[in-house]
Amino acid sequence: MRLPLEWLQDYVETEVPAAEIADLLTNLGHEVEAIHESDIGPVLEIKVTPNRGDCLSVLGVARELAAKDSQRFQPTELMRTAVRGWTLGDESKPLSETSVAIEAPDLCPRYGARVWTDVKTGPSSERVQRRITAAGMRPIDVVVDTTNYVMLELGQPLHAFDLDTLKEDRIVVRTAKPGEQIRTLDGVDRKLEPEMLMICDAERPVAVAGVMGGEETEVTPQTRRILLESAHFNPQSVRRTRRALNLHTEASHRFERYVDPEGVVRALNRFAILYEEQTGCRPCEGVADVYVRRWEPKKVPVREERWKMLLAMDVPRAIAASSLIALGCQVSESTEGLEATGPSWRSDLAIEEDFIEEIGRLYGYDKMPDLLPQGSTPLGGESALTALRSRARQAMLRLGYVEVVTHTLRAPSPLDAAEPLIPLRNPGSPEAAFLRNSLLPGLADVAPRNYGPSPFVFEIGRTFAGDREAVSLGALLAGRILPEHWASKQEDTVDFSAAKGCLERLFSHLRREAALEPSSDERFHPARQAKIMCAGKDVGIVGQLRRDLCEELHLPKESYAFEVCLSDVLDVPEYVPKYRPVSSFPFVRRDMAIEVSKAVPYADIEAAIQEAAGELLERIWLFDVYEGKGIPEGKHSLGVAMILRHPEKTLTDEEANAVRERAVARLEQLGAKLR
Amino acid sequence: MAEAGVSMDSIREKVVEAEERIRKAAGLEELKAIATEYLGKNGALTSLLRTVGSLPPEERPKFGQAVNEAKRSLEVLVAARETELLEVERRRAEERERVDLTMPGRAFRTGIAHPITQTEDRIKAAMIGLGFEFFEGPELEEMKYNFEALNYPPDHPAMDDQDTFYIDDHRLMRTQCTAIQGRVFEAKKPPLRVFTVGRCFRNETVDRTHGHTFHQVDAFMVDRGVNMAHLKGTLKAFATAMFGEGTQVRFRPDYFPFVEPGVDYSISCPFCSGNGCAVCKSSGWIELGGAGLIHPNILRSYGIDTEEWTGWAFGLGVERIPMMQYQIDDLRLFYENDYRFLEQFRA
Known about the structure:
The structure holds two protein chains of two kinds.
Chain A: E1 2-4, H1 5-11, E2 12-13, H2 18-27, E3 31-38, E4 41-47, H3 58-68, E5 74-75, H4 77-84, E6 99-102, E7 110-116, H5 126-134, H6 142-154, E8 158-162, E9 170-175, E10 181-183, E11 189-191, E12 197-200, E13 205-208, E14 212-213, E15 226-232, H7 235-244, H8 250-256, H9 264-279, E16 288-291, E17 299-303, H10 304-311, H11 317-326, E18 330-333, E19 337-341, H12 352-363, H13 384-398, E20 402-403, E21 409-410, E22 422-423, E23 434-435, H14 440-450, E24 456-465, E25 468-478, H15 496-510, E26 515-518, E27 524-534, E28 537-545, H16 547-552, E29 559-565, H17 566-571, E30 588-597, H18 602-613, E31 617-626, E32 635-644, H19 653-668, E33 673-674
Parallel strand pairs in A: 6-9, 20-24
Antiparallel strand pairs in A: 1-4, 2-5, 3-4, 7-15, 7-16, 8-15, 9-12, 10-11, 12-13, 13-14, 17-19, 18-19, 21-23, 22-23, 24-25, 25-29, 26-27, 27-28, 28-29, 30-32, 30-33, 31-32
Chain B: H1 8-24, H2 28-39, H3 44-50, H4 60-96, H5 115-129, E1 133-134, E2 140-142, H6 143-146, E3 171-173, H7 180-187, E4 192-201, E5 213-224, H8 228-243, E6 249-253, E7 259-268, E8 285-294, H9 296-301, E9 309-317, H10 320-326, H11 333-336, H12 339-342
Parallel strand pairs in B: 1-4
Antiparallel strand pairs in B: 2-3, 4-5, 5-9, 6-7, 7-8, 8-9
């Protein structure tokens, strides 16, 4: 809200400069975001929190300042009158020119109206124009400008109808009937829903209550009679309606945030005074004031012990009481402290803590000490899932991957998993319209743009499929295993075994056993992919990304990726390593070149050797794979190394050879032979 | 052989000559040749021994002894010179292996942690150190946990601050990590100290300081006698862990439906010690987030007696922290993951 300082000075007498007022307001919880200059002096731009509809007015802001420091912000005569309300003729006299009926009392607790006949239109006074302009509104004519002026000053939105356009000269406040429509002031035809509150005449809706008037009944230069509306509407109802109509107006903004139900007639009278000042026109005798659901004051105990405890400040009872009184509360003393009744413009003061906040706010939080909590001594810590996540992340960092953070909300990608993507109902843009079901699309987005031909990237984050939200780890790797460098003589590039090697390190870090099994995921090379099995459970996928997809996504042609569902891995209990004694006797190494059909999986070879070698086999690894010259078609030669060691003595050559011979004999059963 | 050839003087002469040559030997080969020349089977000194017969018998033992002493002294000298020459040779060989110190080191892959997760790690360490337990809630959240359970009245304008991405009538992308509160109250009984760090989503126009996705810390505790001063003290301890000793905390009134009283809190600018700089826009204070005492309506709705138990909560954005620390002026950089950006924050 924009508040010209000059206008504020109508309500409080003050010499305090704008910048200092801004500080004071900010410290009261009304953040002044900027001070603008205008032709009537400084204008404060105030961010009013949604619970304080009363501060969307000159009166409301003036009241806050006077409550904080009545010495430097002395209420003026105008403010005292405004608080009391202006009186104008005999308000109890019924208004004969119109009648008001409320058919939806819960949505419209109060509706007031005044009528003018033989009205004058034309521009408003310079003062009114300058002030509403400084406050950010556009001058239109004296009637509209004066309604806006009163709204800005008192917080009560007003609306003027051309009474001659109202059928039977009367107002009915009711919800819309099926099929009803209205053309609003902005020229848009709007279909109405049955729960929307409407201001109607005898036949049809003439305004969307609290939101916007209708075009057919608006005041024009030809208007002779006007009916001025001042009402209190249910905030939720106004909000629902304006949201459904996708409208936001100064009026709806205030009604949503609660407008003082006791200020309805005051605003009508204020308008009458200002309108007469500008045009000389006086209203007809009497006010139509239908007040069907009265505002009920509610007494709330505010205990001294409680406010001292919660605020941790020793605010004396007398100061607490005077603060609440200054804000408009009714206050009496009780044995435990105070009893307070919030004013009609403060719907936010409902429970004890609400009043305690007011006491603290005016006293000043700068007087509050800082203490560390005492009492129970809880055991803080990570959750099991977060701990697993941290370990997985450490493993990936040690493996040399760059961690990235990509968007959860995205556009569809060829690297999405098979499950359907969950769409947002109201996406902000097509680039962020779906929830990711895999981390691979995000990794594919960042890899080519930023890491050249050798990306090694990973992300840990949530993925969404069906009703399941899981924590996953995704990685993408391609190109050189080590970056190009003058001292690296050989160019070692990423292949399936590189991806598998990372997974092996990852799972050993997570202390879970993992195995690969054949899979058929559309995103991967059909002969170079596998699902990752952990304790019989499918926990992820690894493989070479299809080359045509890599081309489409501008990834290196030979790109590999894997994705592991950490939420699933968490369900598998981690193994606890059991200590094995470390032998101090020397080892013997035996290498074998085994010629075998490519159809025999390497795992069978290793298992056969392990079985034959027994406990003397300390370590076994594949150090060479060869096919081509000298090896028959369909076969390959595997170089396997064994480290043999006895726990209690030095192994002799003969014993080592015997192990090797047993292994060879066992391998022959697999159709393998030694080269 | 002449008489003079077998005199004691002749020994001394040979020794002086040999010593001089050994000392001047430039290489091992030369040294070896010199040693042979004097000490070998047919060497100059060995030859002298053979002439001993020409001396009178009473002089013979003395002469023989003198030759042997001369040989021993020369042998010692040769050995010393040999050590010296070996050392020189080793040094020379090593010099040929000298490296260019300015050539770049080998490029290992060592991994880079993203600045957001680095910050999350620091937050976790600080909060766990203060006895808080990490709790994780879903990003795709039920509407009730994001709003109703947090004391948002139905159709309240407070929701306008949180432009929401909806999935359907009951589910949304959480707009604030405070959404874990209801889930925690359903699962645990006070006393409790809980926090989370996670992603939130708001349907906002993306620019330098706004994104549709951001990360938030949310922490709260419920215990007997908990008050605003404990909130302030915990925030101060947290801010000290994140920003260094001497960090002060300031409260100003603010409104969030889930706290009463509600405040926004600022910390004294750690970059200029409150003297005024670009980060704090010369104010000396940096606004970090919202906080307050947990609204009694929330505690009561989970059956917690507010006469016995009170609580507080605070929240803040994660990205703000590295943005301030590293003077990053565009939020979008975190999600672009440019290597040239990320590698600047290796830690």
